[in-house]
Write a structure and sequence with these properties.
The protein is of the alpha/beta class. The chain folds into 2 domains: 145 residues, Aspartate Aminotransferase, domain 1, CATH 3.90.1150.10; 240 residues, Type I PLP-dependent aspartate aminotransferase-like (Major domain) (Aspartate Aminotransferase, domain 2), CATH 3.40.640. 38% of the residues lie in helices and 18% in strands. It is built from 14 helices and 17 strands. The protein has a 7-stranded mixed β-sheet with strand order 4-12-11-10-7-5-6, with helices on both faces. A hairpin with a 2-residue loop joins strand 1 and strand 2.
Length: 396
């Protein structure tokens, strides 16, 4: 079928929850994908920071094929060897205590919300159930994570939303201090806001959050669903800041494209959960865990994350050299970068697609660059050149 055929059938049978582009991607290799018409694109979306090691990675293909010959799925009522191995690796990298596995970032954040509340419930402090979150944040699409998301456009039409969230201003410690009271149990924050426009937290802000949580006896939760797993040039974004949380949530790049999410917690915080408090049928099943293990092994190989930092700096510098009066700033960290414009960028994204470059927005005025961590300088040069040419045709 052609792009048009697939789009027509999709409009007939697939629920209308995405504003889809008129392209049907059918094959990928490395940093490139091909559509149903045979056209090639340079992919700087990577499934929105998901395809960490590129498309059709041979190592991931091999481990998935091997595991599929052994065991696809069993219940978490039994120990799953690849899951236990993955937990050990992630806990070691984070300096945490325990891991919980699920299927997505929203599920990981949902688990974190439940954990911090249950933690205080077990301490006979059930009145402490309010979580401070931030305007501009994005934590997922479940009702609880939508309520935790500090953007009303994601919440509209879903009332009544779960209660227990208070919204502070990102990078503003005073706004946090004003919200802390006897009902507060945790602070939940993205070290780099993704859907909020690729906005990195200031170092003093995260350090200040840690100090507030320590002083008030609160738990600090870092949502690293998009910014974790090597995207900043460190395994975890918190390591780039030197500020350690009590709970970390992961997904997206963890499986390199295979659906898997995780929540990591210190031994103290993890004590909030007991058997029956939370679960996930498919979380950390043999297939997902086997693939995620290989992803972790690859990005922890000597020199891999150093190369991410170098290539991320190269992309950042290349984007900074693009001169256009509509550009406000270039910001981000590693291979999680955003170019902010004075105008909305929907048409610019479409022009880039027409020219063979896949990009996606991070809000209406920020163009997001999140290629695979395996992207090379030649591919970056090609992407930036297409970006330059697209700007010439963009009438904003």
């Amino acid at each position: 079928m052609t792009n048009q055929d697939i789009a027509a059938k999709g409009q007939q049978y697939v629920m209308n929850t995405y504003g889809r582009f008129p392209v049907a991607l059918v094959r990928g290799k490395g940093s490139h994908v091909w559509d149903a018409n045979g056209r090639q694109y340079l992919d700087f979306v990577a499934g929105i920071a998901v395809c960490l090691l590129g498309h059709s990675n041979q190592d991931l293909n091999a481990v998935l094929r091997e595991q599929s010959q052994k065991l696809w799925h069993v219940s978490n009522l039994y120990w799953i060897e690849p899951q236990v191995e993955l937990a050990e690796k992630l806990v070691f990298q984070a300096g945490m205590g325990k891991a919980f596995f699920c299927n997505s970032g929203a599920e990981a954040n949902e688990a974190a919300i439940k954990l911090v509340r249950k933690y205080f419930y077990r301490r006979k402090e059930s009145h402490r159930n309010k979580i401070i979150v931030f305007n501009g944040s994005f934590h997922g699409r479940t009702l609880a994570t939508v309520a935790a998301t500090g953007q009303t456009k994601y919440q509209e039409g879903f009332a009544p939303l779960p209660e227990g969230f208070a919204y502070a201003e990102f990078n503003d410690l005073s706004s946090v201090e004003q919200l802390v009271d006897e009902s507060t149990c945790a602070v939940m924050v993205e070290p780099i806001q993704g859907e909020g426009g690729i906005r990195p937290a200031e170092l003093g802000f995260l350090k200040g959050l840690r100090e507030i949580c320590d002083q008030k006896g609160l738990l600090l939760v870092f949502d690293e669903v998009q910014c974790g797993m090597g995207r900043t040039g460190k395994f975890f974004a918190f390591q780039a800041y030197g500020v350690k949380p009590d709970v970390i949530t992961l997904a997206k790049g963890l499986g390199g494209g295979f659906p898997v999410g995780a929540m990591l917690a210190t031994d103290k915080a993890a004590g909030g959960f007991a058997p029956g408090d939370h679960a996930s049928t498919f979380g950390g099943n043999p297939l997902a865990a086997a693939v995620a293990n290989r992803v972790v092994d690859i990005i922890t190989e000597e020199g891999f994350l150093d190369q991410v930092s170098k290539i991320g700096n190269y992309l950042f510098d290349s984007l900074k050299k693009v001169k256009d009066g509509r550009i406000v700033t270039v910001r981000g960290w590693g291979l999680m970068l955003g170019v902010e414009f004075k105008a909305e960028i929907k048409e610019l994204v479409e022009i880039c697609i027409q020219k063979g470059l896949l990009l996606v927005g991070a809000g209406p005025r920020v163009l997001r660059f999140v290629p695979p961590l395996t992207v090379n300088k030649s591919e970056i040069d090609q992407a930036v050149e297409i970006f330059r040419e697209a700007l010439k045709e963009w009438n904003s």
